[in-house]
Amino acid sequence: xxxxxxxxxxxxxxxxxxxxxxxxxxxxxxxxxxxxxxxxxxxxxxxxxxxxxxxxxxxxxxxxxxxxxxxxxxxxxxxxxxxxxxxxxxxxxxxxxxxxxxxxxxxxxxxxxxxxxxxxxxxxxxxxxxxxxxxxxxxxx
Amino acid sequence: xxxxxxxxxxxxxxxxxxxxxxxxxxxxxxxxxxxxxxxxxxxxxxxxxxxxxxxxxxxxxxxxxxxxxxxxxxxxxxxxxxxxxxxxxxxxxxxxxxxxxxxxxxx
Lengths: 141, 107
Known about the structure:
The complex is a heterodimer of chains A (141) and B (107).
Chain A: E1 6-13, H1 17-25, H2 27-34, E2 37-40, E3 47-51, E4 57-66, E5 70-75, E6 78-80, E7 86-88, E8 92-101, E9 104-113, H3 129-134
Antiparallel strand pairs in A: 1-9, 2-3, 3-4, 4-5, 5-8, 6-7, 8-9
Chain B: H1 3-14, H2 17-29, E1 31-32, H3 34-39, H4 45-57, E2 61-66, E3 69-74, H5 76-106
Antiparallel strand pairs in B: 1-3, 2-3
Helix pairs in contact in B: 1-5
């Protein structure tokens, strides 16, 4: 029960890391599997917007982009409804890691809500690299 | 309190190792006082009392006074809600990962 507000999923995919990286980062490909359209400026500090089928928008910020092994973004703690009204929601950091396994690739997704700043994150809830290392993320090899 | 605020309070409460032990102790014993809980933990009664106050604030425990003693019980709803929230986020990612696998097969 050490990381109560952290969701982790890991799958081995039958594709090389480069191919998965492009499926994870090209907006027209992301829309096909993420369940939202994404517009983003894919560089650290870049802005991102996820638009869900019901019209809700979730703004985010790109934290780290290391092709083809690590993508980190942070959902800002607000949501816009279809009429543009904003409401406060918990922020969350999403860490996507790719690890080559021969011709296949292990994909690990971790979503950590920013309900708490318990892991030494920045005041806006983003987790800096040192904090993420402390909670067990590998750095890119 | 809105659901998000309640969840925030729950995760905040759970972020502390001693508070988690206090919760576990209450889950095992059904109810307890600061003194009875502290007797099974390597912390002082004062520290347990402080954690119980925080848990009570978060709605995770309910306090009942009986004479000079205050008895605490877990209130299951906030925890159930937190588990539900985690299940939702997890299910969302399960769906996405399945869709990603389909997407990669198509490509």
